[in-house]
Design brief:
It is built from 6 helices and 2 strands, in the order ααααβαβα. It is mostly helical and about 140 residues long. The chain has a two-stranded antiparallel sheet. The longest helix has 20 residues. It is elongated and about 75 Å long.
Length: about 140
C-alpha cells in the first residue's frame, strides 16, 4: 500500500471512519480532531511510520481539550497571536518519507491565557489570609 493510502486509512480509523480525501488540506481542523483525539492520531502515525517528533509543536496544529480554544497561545515576539498551521495529507506523506517532523514553525513566545486569572486568584487568597490574621 502506498504511503498516502496508509495515512488516509490511519486517519479514517482514528477519527471515527469519517472520509479523508487524498487532498485533505487540514487533517486536524477539518475533522475536529483536538486534544486526545488529535494526540491518538499523532501517536498512531508515529508508530506506523517511525517518525521523530522532536520538532512537533502541537499548539500550532490543533486545539487542546474542551472547552475548545487555544489554551496555549503562541505569540510572535511583538505579542501578536500566531495562526494555526494546518497539516495536510501531503505534509504527512513528506514527513513519513523523511522520518522527521519538519514543519517550519515561526519564532514564538508562549502566552498562557490563564496567567492573569491565576495571579488575581493568588492575590485574593493572600489578601484573605492577611485579613484573617489581622482580625
Amino acid at each position: 500500500m502506498e504511503t498516502r493510502d496508509r495515512i488516509i486509512d490511519l486517519a479514517r480509523t482514528q477519527n471515527g471512519k469519517r472520509p479523508v480525501g487524498p487532498d485533505c488540506d487540514d487533517l486536524f481542523g477539518r475533522f475536529g480532531m483536538d486534544g486526545d483525539d488529535a494526540r491518538e492520531v499523532v501517536d498512531a502515525y508515529v508508530a506506523e511510520f517511525d517518525v521523530r517528533m522532536d520538532g512537533f509543536l502541537w499548539y500550532f496544529n490543533h486545539l487542546g481539550e474542551p472547552p475548545i480554544y487555544r489554551r496555549i497561545l503562541p505569540v510572535d515576539l511583538a505579542g501578536r497571536p500566531l495562526p494555526m498551521i494546518p497539516v495536510s495529507v501531503t505534509d504527512l506523506v513528506r514527513i513519513a518519507e523523511g522520518r522527521v517532523w519538519d514543519i517550519d514553525y515561526p519564532t514564538l513566545t508562549i502566552r498562557n491565557r490563564h496567567r492573569l486569572w491565576l495571579w488575581m486568584t493568588l492575590g485574593a487568597f493572600a489578601l484573605g489570609g492577611v485579613a484573617l490574621l489581622v482580625s
